[in-house]
Design brief:
alpha+beta, Deoxyribonuclease I, Chain A, 6-stranded mixed beta sheet, 7 helices, 12 strands
Length: 297
């Protein structure tokens, strides 16, 4: 897990030049519109597919595609799933000096899969964070009591928005079991319980691979019944719908959306999309990233 007291603030030459070029352009935009734009948060949820050496979709083959995608999109928040420690370090390096990340492995160490949260340090500062296990004993590292195929975890971070004085919010990221519906439902209920224990006056964003089709699974129902909204449904604008797990096979239009971004109801969702980026036929992962641009209420 990265040390959250370490804040990287260095401005690279390319970023500095881009910022300088942007100044005259902002002068042509009404002040209210420019202010509204700076309040928007760009959020991504992305199952990275763990780093393996198996061809043709090894991490070595996928990393350049992942780098190009993430640098191009540059979200403020990326909720990731399946990332291995060295893989997360690679992504951190590829994103550049303005990003950091928080997360731990599902077995409690640095050599197993995590649900790390990356964030843009120019926009966000972590205030506190925690990881809990999706089990009857959420404080017991590696616990797995609901018949899941392996231990599952959720990580949350309380962020301070550096562009909005006094604004704080929570992000929770998770990855539910792929094989056991009972484990998924119990996990959803525990996540709701944990959300209600945190400061409910603050906005909340939930990212994850839920291994359950939106609007066609009790997991989705449980989370929405708790007061969260699916940002795909509430977006003012949406891109084309695809099944978000493709397994390196042809994409499925109007397929199951098992990767979601949820939020508290007063959130304004400007756009939601499923990113189909690939290079020379190579996808960065066996999942498609889901993205949303939103303004927290």
């Amino acid at each position: 897990m990265m040390n959250t007291t370490r804040m990287t603030r260095r401005m690279g030459l390319r970023t500095a030049v881009a910022a300088a070029l942007a100044v005259p352009l902002l002068g042509t935009v009404p002040a209210s519109a420019a202010k509204a734009r700076t309040r928007r948060l760009d959020v991504m949820t992305f199952n990275l597919r763990f780093a393996s050496t198996t061809e043709p979709n090894s991490w070595a083959a996928r990393r350049p595609v992942m780098r190009e995608l993430l640098r191009s999109e540059a979200p403020h928040i990326i909720g990731t799933q399946e990332g291995l420690y060295q893989q997360l370090r690679d992504i951190h390096s590829d994103l550049g000096p303005h990003y950091d990340w928080i997360g731990t492995g599902r077995e409690g160490g640095s050599h197993d899969e995590s649900v790390a949260i990356f964030y843009d340090t120019r926009r966000l500062a972590p205030v506190e964070h925690d990881t809990f296990w999706l089990s009857d004993t959420p404080r017991v590292i590696g616990s797995n009591t609901w018949g899941g195929s392996l231990p599952r975890i959720a990580t949350w971070v309380r962020f301070r928005d550096l562009h909005r004085v006094g604004r704080e919010f929570h992000v929770l990221n998770t990855h539910l079991d792929h094989a056991n519906q009972y484990a998924r439902e119990r996990a959803a209920s525990l996540i709701v319980e944990r959300i209600t224990e945190l400061d409910r006056s603050l906005p909340f964003v939930v990212t994850g691979d839920f291994n359950a089709a939106a609007h066609n699974n009790q997991v989705h129902d449980v989370l929405l019944a708790a007061g969260l909204v699916d940002t795909w449904d509430t977006a003012a604008e949406r891109g084309p719908l695809y099944g978000t797990f493709h397994g390196y096979r042809p994409l499925t239009p109007d397929g199951d959306r098992i990767d979601w971004i949820l939020a508290t109801p007063r959130t304004t969702v400007h756009r939601a999309s499923i990113n189909t980026f690939a290079m020379n036929g190579q996808f960065p992962s066996d999942h498609l990233p889901v993205q949303t641009s939103l303004t927290l209420g």
